[in-house]
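hey
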């Protein structure tokens, strides 16, 4: 019975790290609009920064990020010059009274940067933005890049959270996704980070990978648990070869099917909860004392382009090629192609090429969708009055048609049941007014 339910509810839908989602961005929102939006950020706004490094010294075939492989450092040097220019341009348009409460270095592989370049990049950011004294600084780390000098540089820039992509430790799976990374390497990185005072470690695990079985995934989960990370993200592999051509290197015939993926996810989640991790949203787990777990318990969990977060900033500013920002007025995305990105920042400092200006209805639906994804429900009383009847009608209609026990309505609240929580993306799509007209293709929902 459950297997049939999984098959029926696994149709591709967005991951809802924004609403509307990126396929609905358009080129009417560019640098001029972005400059205006930046100028409105002041002392009442807390900022979060994301700096994108779109280079890797190897290309993992499972990856769906905006990145490219390079075995030469010269392209990275040229890119960093442009990134510094954008930081100066964006920082110059934002009030220095707006504090930065979080900074995330992502990619790509930020840890392939030379130590001196890591330090120079953080220095440029600190010169152009006002960092709060307790700002969180997180870095995505590839153990294959790291050495003592880079660990020291990460300590010098004030890294507070180390985020390690593990995916799977099984050698056959690693070979199939071109991601060779031993447990010993990974443990060494965790120990080096903690020895330098890093107070939070996050590990990413993927299910649904080629050749992955319940047994091999269980071994990986046990190995990750032995590292005692503060947070664990359990993601389903998103096979999107129409968007990421290098994923064609993965043989679709050896990918687990939809039902097998669901059972892998369920097993891994049960293993993590059994040893004391708290389930956060659809795919995160955290130790009870971690800020993410606290936010989930207090009802302050958020969701943005980086996934689940406790970050309460009013604006997320994306820096670097392809980066997406979220401001009070809407969304903005930089030019993805690095060459064109560099040309644009050299000419004018900003590289925004598309975005979306939110309507009041968008804000209401974004609120509902974020609460479904974060808290598995919402109160009709919290929906803006102008849109409350439409949202109530959609929720009531969904509940009336629900024959699978996915949700219920209790008074003024729409709630997902435990059986419905794994399908939160599918339920959230009920409130997506743009989905039917979207041009984008999405990954499956489990």
């Amino acid at each position: 019975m459950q297997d049939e339910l999984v098959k029926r509810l696994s149709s591709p839908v967005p991951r809802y790290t924004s609403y509307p989602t990126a396929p609905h961005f358009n080129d009417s929102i560019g640098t001029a609009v972005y400059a205006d939006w930046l100028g409105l950020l002041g002392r009442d706004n807390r900022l979060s920064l994301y700096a994108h490094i779109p280079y890797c010294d190897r290309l993992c075939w499972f990856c769906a990020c905006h990145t490219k492989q390079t075995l030469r450092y010269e392209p990275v040097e040229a890119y960093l010059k442009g990134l510094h220019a954008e930081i100066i341009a964006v920082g110059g348009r934002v009030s220095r009274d707006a504090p930065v409460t979080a900074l995330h270095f992502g990619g790509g592989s930020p840890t392939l940067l030379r130590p001196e370049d890591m330090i120079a990049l953080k220095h440029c950011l600190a010169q152009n933005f006002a960092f709060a004294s307790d700002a969180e600084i997180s870095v995505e780390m590839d153990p294959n890049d790291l050495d003592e000098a880079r660990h020291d540089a990460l300590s010098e820039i004030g890294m507070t959270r180390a985020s390690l992509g593990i995916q799977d430790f099984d050698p056959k799976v690693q070979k199939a996704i071109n991601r060779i990374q031993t447990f010993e390497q990974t443990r060494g990185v965790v120990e080096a980070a903690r020895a330098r005072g890093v107070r939070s470690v996050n590990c990413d695990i993927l299910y649904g990978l080629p050749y992955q079985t319940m047994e091999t995934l269980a071994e990986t989960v046990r190995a990750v648990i032995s590292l005692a990370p503060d947070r664990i993200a359990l993601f389903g592999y998103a096979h999107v070869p129409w968007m990421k051509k290098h994923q064609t290197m993965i043989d679709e015939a050896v990918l687990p099917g939809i039902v097998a993926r669901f059972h892998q996810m369920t097993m891994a989640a049960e293993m993590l909860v059994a040893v004391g991790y708290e389930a956060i949203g659809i795919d995160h787990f955290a130790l009870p004392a971690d800020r993410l777990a606290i936010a989930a318990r207090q009802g302050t969990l958020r969701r943005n382009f980086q996934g689940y977060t406790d970050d309460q900033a009013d604006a997320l500013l994306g820096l670097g090629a392809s980066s997406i920002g979220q401001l009070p007025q809407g969304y903005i995305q930089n030019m993805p192609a690095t060459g064109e990105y560099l040309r644009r920042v050299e000419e004018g400092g900003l590289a925004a090429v598309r975005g979306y200006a939110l309507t009041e209805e968008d804000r209401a639906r974004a609120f509902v969708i974020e609460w479904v994804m974060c808290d598995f429900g919402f109160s009709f009383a919290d929906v803006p009055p102008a849109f409350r009847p439409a949202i109530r009608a959609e929720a009531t209609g969904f509940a009336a048609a629900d024959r699978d026990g996915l949700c219920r309505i209790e008074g003024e609240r729409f709630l997902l049941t435990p059986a419905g929580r794994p399908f939160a993306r599918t339920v959230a799509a009920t409130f997506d007014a743009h989905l039917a007209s979207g041009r984008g293709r999405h990954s499956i929902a489990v």
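The radius of gyration is 21 Å. Residues 74-91 form the longest helix (18 residues).
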